[in-house]
Design brief:
The complex is a heterotrimer of chains A (about 1000), B (about 100) and C (about 425). With about 1000 residues, chain A is α+β, with helices and mostly antiparallel strands. Chain A has 20 helices and 51 strands. In chain A, helix 4 runs parallel beside helix 5, helix 4 packs parallel to helix 8 and helix 9 crosses helix 11. Chain B has one domain: Folate-binding superfamily (Folate-binding fold). Helix content of chain B is about 20%, strand content about 35%. In chain B, the strands form two sheets. Chain B has a four-stranded antiparallel β-sheet. A two-stranded antiparallel sheet of chain B has the order 1-2. Chain C has about 425 residues and is α/β, with parallel strands linked by helices. Chain C folds into two domains: about 190 residues, FAD/NAD(P)-binding domain (3-Layer(bba) Sandwich); about 160 residues, D-Amino Acid Oxidase, Chain A, domain 2 (2-Layer Sandwich). Chain C is built from ten helices and 18 strands. In chain C, the strands form three sheets. In chain C, strands 1, 2, 8, 9, 10, 11, 17 and 18 form an eight-stranded mixed β-sheet that branches. In chain C, strand 17 and strand 18 form a beta hairpin. Chain C is globular and about 65 Å long. The chains are: A alpha+beta (about 1000), B alpha+beta (about 100), C alpha/beta (about 425). The interface between A and B is medium-sized, with 32 and 35 residues. Strand 31 of chain A pairs antiparallel with strand 16 of chain C, so a sheet runs across the interface.
Chain lengths: ~1000, ~100, ~425
C-alpha cells in the first residue's frame, strides 16, 4: 500500500468505504478520490479522449485532465468528475468512463495503434464519400467513440439555490496570499468574503512542509482560518469556486454544499450559485505546475511534481515506492526532498539544467532528460539520456515532472485582458486591463515564495481598502520561506519519433503542433482549433503553454509574440443545475392566476397558459366528452342569453393629468382629444415604424382621467412605450401613468341578457338603460350594495356586452355573485376558447393578426390613421411599401363545405394555382368552428382582399395535407352592422 | 452590470430593460415637411460606436424611470447615469 | 493538394512530410480587381465563389487578425432554412442546398451533419405561427414536418413532458437542418479560394477607404494602400466601424450573444432542438459537448463577453426543457458581436459610393447563411446585379417600408 505511516491532513480514525469500478476500497476523511485510490495502489483511473490511452492522475487539483470518473447512479449520475477534487465520503460509488469493456481492456485503444492515421485534423481530409455516408456511417461511429462520460437523462433529483452576497473585498483563493489579504481586511473591519474551491482552506500551505514563524505552514493556515471564522465581518466560503469575473465587480461562485455527502440533507440544496457584488477583489488563485513533454509522458504514474508533493504531504500518499523527478527548476528538488523525508525511495532527479544544484540524499543528473517511458497500464521505467548522451533506464513506479509554475491568471483575463510574459519565471502573469476593482497577489501574480504571497496579499488588501477610503496597517506576519524562482525554461524533449503529449485529455502531441505548423495553422487560435489543444474539460490549464512554446519554437518567435488564447468563464466546469437554481419544472417561470381562478378550479375548468397567466380555457360539463362540445355550448349560451368571462389579464393603464387626452392623442393613431367624458373609444397604437403595435380601448372617466386597456400579451411593453413617450418625448406634459392590471378584476358580461343580469348586481341608482348607458359608455359605479366598480359598455363578442371591474380582492366574490344572480338566465361562464371563437365570428383582430408585421391598412383600419395630427408611427406608416394597394387585407373565409376545417397557418392560393411561393396570396391567421354559423370559419390576410369578396380561393396546408376551397367574405361573420352591441 | 440610478443608487442591470441609442429622445416633428426622410433616419440609422455610447434603459422592475446611461461598449464601463426626462428637457423637449 | 483517405494513408506511411499549408501566406499586391474586407466565413466564401463561379481570380481577402476569427469561429454551428418570410426563405433554402454539396465541392470535410432541427410548440398561437411558417417553407421548396407531442416524445423521450410550466404540444421539424463544424467552413473556403489564386492576407487591417468623386479606389491598410476596382465589405461585428470610415451610418446595432458548451458526453441529443417557451437551443457536437445558447444580452456591446443574467436564463431554459441536464457541467462560454439590423434581416447591396459593396447585418443568423451569402455577394460584385434570392436584402428597404421582419419586432435590434 502507498499510504505513508505518518503525516497528512487525513483523519486516520475514520474509515470510509468506497468503490471504483465495483471494487471496494477504504480511505479516510480528508481524502480525495484520487488520493484514496493512490493510497490503495490504483494508478490507472481513466482513458484519454482520442487514443483511449490508459491514464492516471496528473495533478492534485481542479486542473486535472486525466483522472475523470463517473460518480453516483440514476438521476444523480455525474460524468467527468475529476477524481482529484472529489471529496471522499462513505459509500461513494465511482466508475471509470470512456472505456469498454473495461478500464484495463478498452477496445477503442485500437485508436492508439492507428494514431499515425489519426493525426490532428485528419477528419477534415476524409469521410467525404459518398456524401450520405457521413450521417449514416462515419458520424455515428465517431460520436460513439467520442464524448467522455454519460448522463442517465433522468431528472436531477437534487435542488439548487441562488443567493446574493455583498462585500467590500472578495478574496479569491485561501492560500497564503488570500489568507493574508483576508486577515488584513478582516481585522480592519471590512466586509470580506474569502472563497476557496478546496474543502480545506490554506491552498499550497497544506501541501508544503516549511515553517511559518515557529509553526508549520499548515498549522499557521489553520490558525488563520480559525481567526477569520471568528470575525463577524468575514464570510468564509469553502468548497466554493469563483467561476467568472463579470462587469462592475460582480462575480459568480458556486458553493458545493452537498457534493461531499451521499445526498443532500433534507431540504438542503446540492449547490448554491452566489452572485457576489464586490467593491474590490483580490485574486489569490495561486499557480499550477506544468509538465514537460517527452515520449510517452502520459503513462499512469507520471504526474506533476508539485502534485506528487501534495499527495505526500497533505494526504500521506506516495504514488509508488520508488519514484524519480524530472525538472527544469528548483521546485522539483523540493519535491524530492519532501519525498525523501517521508522515506520514499527517490531514484534520481533528472534536471535539464547543466548547472543544476545538488540535492542531499539523491542523485542529481544535471543536463539530463527523460526521453521515454514504459509500462502499459502503469509506469514501470523511464529512459534517461544523460548530458553525455548516454541513455539508461530507471525502474520506477512514478515520475514527478516539474516544468515550472504558471500563475493562475484565468479570472484576471475574463474581461479580455491579455496576460503578459514574464521572463524571470518563464510564465504569463496577469496583464492588460484587469476586471474592474481586481488586484492580483501571490503566486497568481508571479510571486511564488510564501513570504512574497503574504506580502502581496496584505498589500493588495491595503490598497483595496485605501480605494474605499480606509487606511489599514499591514499585519505582522511571521517570516516564511522566500526562495527565488530558479528555472531554465525547457518545454519538450526533442529528437523523438514517438508521441510526446501536450494536452493529455485531448491527446494533442508535439507532432500535432508540428503538423499544424506545417499546414499553416500557426496563429494560436488556429493551433487550438485545428489540434483541439486546450479545449478539453481542463481548458488547457496544464497544456496551453506547452503547445504555445512548441509553436513558438517552430515559427522562431518568442512565446510573448506567439500570445495566448482567451481564458473564458467558467474557471472550472459548473453544473447546469446550479446556474438554473429553483427555476425548474413548474417553477421555471412564475404563474399568474386570475381573480376567479379558485372559482374556476371549483367548476372543473380546463386551464391554458397565456404568457405567464393561467386562464380558464373552457368549462367542461360532465356530459361533454370533447372540448368542442364545451366551447360550442359556451358560445351558444352567450349569444343566446348571457356569458361571463374573466378578462383581468388584459393590461390596464391609468392615465391621469391635465394633458392626458393630448398624450393619448399622440399615442394612438386615431383621434382622442375630443372623446367625451363617460365615453370609450377603440384605439390602435402604432410602433414608430408604422406597424400596428397593440389595440384596446381608452375610457375617459373624467376630463383628466383615462383608463386604457391593452392586449394581455403587450401589457408590459405598451406601458413601457407610454412611459418612454411621457418621460423622453414630451417631458413637460402633465400626465401620469400607472399600471393597474393587477389592481382591478375585470369580467366580460356578454349576451342579450347581460343588461338584465347586471341590473341585479349594479346598485339601483345607476341607470343601465340603453339611453342611460349606451354602447361605448363608461362610468364609476357601485355594485352589490356599495362596492366600488367601473363599468364599460364594450364588446369583444359582438353582443350587447359590458366589462365590469372591481378591486381585485372582490373579484372572486363578484364572479360568484354574477353566477348566482344569473341563474335565472342560465348564465354561462366561458373561457378563452369561446372568447376566441366569438371574436373570430365578429372579425376582431387579436394576437394572430397583430403579429408585428401588419399595418392598420392590412387590418382594414387604414382610415383610422389620422393625418391631422402627429401621432407615433403615423409618418412612417405612409411609406410606399406599407401603402401597397395590392397588399394584404384582413378578410374572412367560409369553406365551401361548412364542415371542412380551415387551418390557421394555411396559405392562400387561387384555384388551380400550383402550390408554389410565387402563387402565394396570403395566409389564414385564425380559424375556428362557428356554432353560430354551423360552419368552420376563418380570417386571414389576402392580397387585395377587399376586391376579392365572393371569390373562391384555396387555404392550402401542405404541412398537414389539407387543401380547402374557401369563399372570401367580410371578416364580420356575425352582426356586421353592429346592431346587437347597440341593443 | 451595476447601474447607479440617480434616485435609487446602485441597482443590478437585470432590473432594467434596454431600448437603444439615446438619440431616440430626439423624435422629429411629424407634421413638418419632409418628415418621412427625417423619421427614416431617426428610426433606423445608428452611430453604433465602439466606445462611449449614450443609451436608454428603463427601470422596469424598479421605479419606472427611463435613464440615459453613458457606457463604453468596449469595456462596459458606465461613465454617467441621468434621468432621461432631465436629458430630454435639457435638449429642449417639452410638450 | 487533394485530400482523401488514400492521401492520409500515404502520408501516414511516409511520416506526414507531404502536407503543405492549407493556404498560402502572400504579401499583398498593390492592386486587385476585387478586394474583400474580412476573412470570416462570408468574406472567404465570397472570394471562393468569385473565383470558382464567376472566374474572378484577381481577388484579395484582407483580414485584420487570423481568418475565421469572427463569428464563423464562435457560433452554435446550426444550419437550417426554416424561415417565415418570402424575402428570406429562398435565400436560406439556397444556402442549405449549398451546404449539402459543400464538402465535395471544397474537398474539405466540414462535417455537415443533417441531423434535423426541431422547434418546439407550447401553445395554440405558436402552432398557428409554425403552421404558417411550415407551409411557407414547403411552398418555397424546403422541407418541413409538423410533429405532435407524442412524436416529439418518441424522438426526445427525456424532455420535460410531465412537469412542465409550458407543456410541449408538438414541434416543427426540418430534417435537412443540422450542424456543421464551424471552423472547418472558414478553412475549407480559404483553402478553396487560395487554390484558385485568391490572396488571403492575414494581419492586414483596413484603416480607411480612398474615395474620389464618389468612387472607391481602394483601401488604406496597415500594410499600405491597396488599389481595387471593387471593394466588398463583409466584417460582421465591425460593420458600423468599418463603414463609418466611408462616412456611412448603418441600420445596425452591435450586440453581444453568448454561447456555451458543456463537457463531452456520450451521445444523448440526436438533433438540434429549440425550446419554444424560453431562450434555449441545443445540439450535441461530434466531440460530445452540448452546444447551446439563448437570447442576446440586449445592450450594445463590442466586448465579446456577456453577463450573468443571460447565462442563468439560458440554464433555466435548458433545465426547464431537459430536467436531466442538472449534473451536466458547462465547460466554456463566450460572446460574439452580432450586427443586429433594424428588421432582423441582412443587407447584401451596393452602397451609394461607386465600387463599394456591403454585406452585413446578419444578426445572430449569419453562420447558416455563409454559402449563400458568399455566393450572392460574389454575384453582386461580379455582375453588379443582386442575385435573385437576395434581391430583398437592400439598404433602401427601410426607407421604402419593405422590411423583412421575421419576428415582427420593429426597429429595435435587440428584440430580433
Amino acid at each position: 500500500m502507498n499510504r505513508l505511516s505518518t503525516g497528512g491532513q487525513i483523519d486516520r480514525t475514520t474509515q470510509l468505504r468506497f468503490t471504483f469500478d465495483g471494487q471496494p476500497y477504504h480511505g479516510h476523511a480528508g481524502d480525495t478520490l484520487a488520493s484514496a485510490l493512490l493510497a490503495n495502489g490504483v494508478r490507472l483511473m481513466g482513458r484519454s479522449f482520442k487514443y483511449h490511452r490508459p491514464r492516471g492522475v496528473l495533478s492534485a487539483g481542479s486542473e486535472e485532465p486525466n483522472a475523470l470518473v463517473q460518480l453516483r447512479k440514476g438521476g444523480r449520475q455525474e460524468p467527468n468528475t475529476r477524481a482529484t477534487v472529489a471529496e471522499l465520503f462513505n459509500g461513494l460509488e465511482a466508475a471509470s468512463q470512456n472505456a469498454w469493456p473495461s478500464l484495463k481492456l478498452d477496445a477503442l485503444a485500437i485508436n492508439d495503434r492507428l494514431s499515425n492515421f489519426l493525426t490532428a485534423g485528419f477528419y477534415y481530409k476524409t469521410f467525404m464519400w459518398p456524401a450520405a455516408f457521413w450521417e449514416k456511417l462515419y458520424e455515428p461511429i465517431i460520436r460513439r467513440a467520442a464524448g467522455l462520460g454519460s448522463i442517465s437523462t433522468d431528472p436531477d433529483p437534487d435542488s439548487y439555490d441562488k443567493g446574493f452576497l455583498h462585500c467590500d473585498l472578495l478574496v479569491i483563493g485561501a492560500g497564503p496570499a488570500g489568507l493574508a489579504a483576508a486577515l488584513t481586511a478582516g481585522r480592519a473591519g471590512a466586509r470580506v468574503i474569502l472563497a476557496d474551491e478546496d474543502f480545506r482552506m490554506g491552498g499550497r500551505l497544506n501541501a508544503e512542509t516549511h515553517g511559518l514563524g515557529d509553526q508549520s505552514c499548515a498549522d499557521w493556515a489553520a490558525g488563520a482560518v480559525a481567526e477569520l471564522a471568528s470575525l463577524p465581518n468575514v464570510r468564509l466560503l469553502g468548497r466554493t469556486t469563483v467561476l467568472g469575473a463579470f462587469d462592475h465587480g460582480i462575480y459568480a461562485a458556486v458553493e458545493r454544499v452537498a457534493d461531499h455527502l451521499a445526498e443532500p440533507a433534507p431540504g438542503k440544496p446540492r449547490q448554491i450559485l452566489w452572485r457576489i457584488y464586490s467593491k474590490r477583489a483580490v485574486l489569490c488563485a495561486g499557480a499550477i505546475d506544468r509538465p514537460i513533454s517527452f515520449a510517452n509522458n502520459d503513462r499512469p504514474g507520471i504526474m506533476l511534481a508539485g502534485a506528487m508533493r501534495a499527495y505526500v504531504n497533505r494526504w500521506a500518499v506516495t504514488p509508488a515506492q520508488t519514484v524519480a523527478i524530472f525538472t527544469n527548476n528548483d521546485d522539483g528538488h523540493r519535491t524530492a526532498r519532501d519525498l525523501l523525508a517521508q522515506g520514499v525511495d527517490v531514484a534520481a532527479i533528472v534536471d535539464t539544467r547543466v548547472d543544476a544544484p545538488a540535492c542531499d540524499g539523491v542523485q542529481v543528473l544535471a543536463g539530463a532528460q527523460v526521453v521515454d517511458s514504459a509500462g502499459r497500464l502503469g509506469l514501470k521505467s523511464v529512459t534517461v539520456r544523460q548530458a553525455s548522451g548516454q541513455e539508461h533506464r530507471l525502474r520506477i513506479g512514478a515520475l514527478g515532472v516539474s516544468g515550472g509554475w504558471n500563475p493562475n491568471v484565468a479570472l484576471s483575463s475574463h474581461q479580455r485582458g491579455r496576460p503578459e510574459w514574464n521572463e524571470a519565471i518563464a510564465a504569463f502573469v496577469p496583464g492588460g486591463i484587469l476586471p474592474q476593482g481586481m488586484r492580483v497577489a501571490g503566486a497568481a501574480a508571479g510571486r511564488f515564495s510564501t513570504q512574497g504571497a503574504l506580502e502581496t496579499g496584505a498589500g493588495a488588501a491595503i490598497q483595496a481598502l485605501s480605494d474605499l477610503g480606509k487606511t489599514v496597517q499591514a499585519p505582522d506576519f511571521p517570516m516564511a520561506e522566500d526562495g527565488a524562482t530558479r528555472i531554465t525554461p525547457f518545454w519538450h524533449v526533442g529528437g523523438t519519433k514517438a508521441r510526446a503529449w501536450l494536452d493529455f485529455q485531448n491527446d494533442v502531441t508535439v507532432k500535432d503542433v508540428t503538423l499544424a505548423h506545417q499546414e499553416g495553422f500557426r496563429a494560436v487560435e488556429h493551433l487550438k482549433r485545428y489540434t483541439t489543444l486546450g479545449m478539453a474539460t481542463d481548458q488547457g490549464k496544464t497544456s496551453n503553454l506547452g503547445g504555445l512554446a512548441v509553436m513558438a519554437e517552430l515559427t522562431g518567435q518568442s512565446i510573448a509574440q506567439t500570445g495566448t488564447t482567451m481564458f473564458r468563464p467558467p474557471y472550472t466546469p459548473v453544473a447546469m443545475g446550479a446556474l438554473a437554481g429553483r427555476s425548474v419544472g413548474r417553477d421555471f417561470r412564475p404563474t399568474r392566476l386570475t381573480p376567479s381562478h379558485i372559482w374556476a378550479v371549483e367548476q372543473g375548468a380546463t386551464f391554458v397558459e397565456v404568457g405567464m397567466w393561467l386562464r380558464a380555457q373552457y368549462f367542461p360539463r360532465a356530459d361533454e366528452s370533447d372540448w368542442r362540445q364545451s366551447v360550442d355550448r359556451e358560445v351558444r349560451a352567450t349569444r343566446g342569453s348571457v356569458g361571463v368571462c374573466d378578462v383581468t389579464t388584459l393590461g390596464k393603464i391609468d392615465v391621469q393629468g391635465r394633458d392626458a387626452a393630448a398624450f393619448l392623442n399622440r399615442i394612438y393613431c386615431n383621434g382622442f382629444a375630443k372623446l367625451a367624458v363617460g365615453r370609450v373609444r377603440y384605439g390602435l397604437m402604432l410602433r414608430e415604424d408604422g406597424i400596428a403595435m397593440d389595440d384596446g380601448t381608452a375610457a375617459r372617466m373624467a376630463e383628466d382621467h383615462f383608463v386604457v386597456t391593452t392586449t394581455t400579451a403587450n401589457a408590459v411593453s405598451v406601458f413601457r412605450h407610454m412611459e418612454f413617450a411621457r418621460q423622453c418625448l414630451w417631458p413637460d406634459m402633465d400626465v401620469q401613468l400607472i399600471s393597474t392590471t393587477e389592481a382591478w378584476a375585470q369580467f366580460a358580461v356578454a349576451g342579450p341578457k347581460s343588461r338584465a343580469l347586471l341590473q341585479k348586481i349594479v346598485d339601483p341608482e345607476f341607470d343601465l338603460s340603453n339611453d342611460g348607458f349606451p354602447f361605448m359608455a363608461c362610468g364609476e359605479i357601485t355594485v352589490c350594495g356599495g362596492c366600488p366598480a367601473r363599468l364599460f359598455r364594450i364588446s369583444f363578442s359582438g353582443e350587447l356586452a359590458y366589462e365590469i371591474a372591481v378591486p381585485t380582492r372582490y373579484g372572486d366574490a363578484l364572479m360568484r355573485r354574477l353566477m348566482d344572480a344569473g341563474r335565472e338566465f342560465d348564465v354561462t361562464p366561458y373561457g378563452t376558447e369561446a372568447l376566441g371563437v366569438m371574436r373570430i365570428e365578429k372579425g376582431h383582430a387579436a394576437g394572430n393578426e397583430l403579429n408585428g408585421q401588419t399595418t392598420a391598412l392590412n387590418l382594414g383600419m387604414g382610415r383610422m390613421v389620422s393625418d391631422k395630427k402627429d401621432s407615433i408611427g403615423a409618418v412612417l406608416s405612409r411609406r410606399e411599401g406599407l401603402q401597397d394597394e395590392n397588399g394584404l387585407r384582413l378578410v374572412g373565409f367560409l369553406p365551401k363545405n361548412p364542415q371542412e376545417r380551415v387551418i390557421a397557418g394555411a396559405h392562400l392560393l387561387d384555384r388551380g394555382a400550383a402550390p408554389r411561393a410565387a402563387n402565394d396570396l396570403g395566409y389564414v391567421t385564425s380559424a375556428c368552428y362557428s356554432p353560430t354559423l354551423d360552419s368552420y370559419i376563418a380570417i386571414g390576410f389576402l392580397k387585395s382582399g377587399e376586391t376579392r369578396l365572393g371569390d373562391v380561393v384555396r387555404a392550402a396546408s401542405p404541412l398537414t395535407g389539407q387543401d380547402t376551397e374557401v369563399t372570401v367574405v367580410s371578416p364580420h361573420f356575425v352582426d356586421p352592422k353592429g346592431e346587437r352591441l347597440r341593443a | 452590470m451595476i447601474i447607479n440610478h440617480p434616485l435609487l443608487g446602485p441597482c443590478d442591470a437585470q432590473e432594467f430593460t434596454y431600448l437603444g441609442d439615446a438619440r431616440l429622445i430626439d423624435r422629429p416633428d411629424g407634421m413638418a415637411d419632409g418628415a418621412e426622410d427625417v423619421f427614416y433616419d431617426y428610426a433606423y440609422l445608428r452611430d453604433n460606436p465602439a466606445g462611449q455610447h449614450r443609451e436608454l434603459w428603463f427601470h422596469e422592475a424598479g421605479d419606472r424611470s427611463w435613464l440615459v446611461i453613458t457606457r463604453n461598449t468596449l469595456t462596459h464601463e458606465i461613465i454617467s447615469v441621468e434621468l432621461a426626462r432631465d436629458v430630454a428637457r435639457k435638449q429642449g423637449r417639452s410638450l | 493538394m487533394r485530400y482523401s483517405g488514400f492521401k492520409i494513408l500515404k502520408e501516414a506511411l511516409s511520416g506526414h512530410k507531404g502536407w503543405t499549408p492549407a493556404w498560402r501566406d502572400p504579401d499583398p499586391r498593390p492592386q486587385y480587381d476585387i478586394v474583400i474586407i474580412g476573412g470570416g466565413g462570408h468574406g472567404l466564401a465570397t472570394a471562393y465563389y468569385l473565383a470558382r463561379q464567376f472566374r474572378q481570380c484577381n481577388v484579395a481577402v484582407l483580414e485584420k487578425g487570423w481568418i475565421g476569427g469572427g463569428n464563423v469561429g464562435r457560433n452554435t454551428t446550426i444550419i437550417r432554412s426554416n424561415y417565415l418570410l418570402d424575402g428570406n426563405e429562398p435565400f436560406y433554402e439556397f444556402s442549405l442546398k449549398l451546404w449539402e454539396g459543400l464538402e465535395q465541392d471544397l474537398n474539405y470535410n466540414a462535417m455537415v451533419s443533417q441531423r434535423g432541427i426541431l422547434n418546439l410548440i407550447h401553445s395554440d398561437a405558436q402552432r398557428d405561427a409554425f403552421m404558417r411558417r411550415g407551409n411557407g417553407m414547403i411552398l418555397h421548396g424546403a422541407d418541413a414536418e409538423l410533429l405532435g407531442a407524442d412524436q416529439v416524445r418518441r424522438e426526445y423521450p427525456f424532455l420535460n413532458f410531465d412537469n412542465a410550466r409550458f407543456p410541449i404540444k408538438g414541434g416543427l421539424a426540418q430534417r435537412r437542418g443540422g450542424t456543421v463544424r464551424h471552423d472547418a467552413v472558414a478553412w475549407g473556403y480559404a483553402r478553396g479560394a487560395d487554390s484558385h489564386g485568391v490572396d488571403i492576407i492575414q494581419n492586414c487591417e483596413v484603416t480607411g477607404f480612398r474615395i474620389e468623386n464618389g468612387h472607391c479606389k481602394g483601401v488604406e491598410t496597415s500594410r499600405g494602400f491597396i488599389r481595387a476596382a471593387k471593394v466588398g465589405v463583409a466584417v460582421a461585428g465591425n460593420s458600423s466601424r468599418v463603414m463609418a470610415q466611408a462616412g456611412m451610418r448603418l441600420p445596425i446595432e452591435s450586440h453581444v450573444l453568448q454561447a456555451f458548451v458543456s463537457e463531452g458526453l456520450k451521445p444523448v441529443l440526436p438533433g438540434v432542438i429549440t425550446f419554444g417557451a424560453g431562450h434555449f437551443y441545443c445540439s450535441q457536437s461530434d466531440k460530445g459537448g452540448l452546444v447551446f445558447g439563448g437570447d442576446i444580452d440586449g445592450y450594445n456591446s463590442y466586448a465579446q463577453r456577456g453577463n450573468l443574467p443571460v447565462i442563468e436564463d439560458v440554464a433555466e431554459g435548458g433545465m426547464a426543457l431537459f430536467p436531466g441536464l442538472g449534473r451536466v457541467r458547462l465547460l466554456r462560454m463566450w460572446g460574439g458581436i452580432m450586427d443586429m439590423s433594424m428588421d432582423g434581416s441582412p443587407i447584401i447591396d451596393r452602397t451609394h459610393i461607386q465600387g463599394l459593396y456591403f454585406n452585413g447585418g446578419w444578426c445572430y443568423g449569419g453562420f447558416k447563411a455563409t454559402p449563400a451569402s458568399g455566393w450572392c455577394f460574389a454575384h453582386l460584385l461580379a455582375t453588379d446585379t443582386p442575385h435573385d434570392v437576395a434581391k430583398a436584402y437592400r439598404f433602401d428597404r427601410f426607407r421604402r417600408g419593405r422590411m423583412i421582419d421575421e419576428k415582427g419586432m420593429g426597429a429595435q435590434p435587440n428584440l430580433h
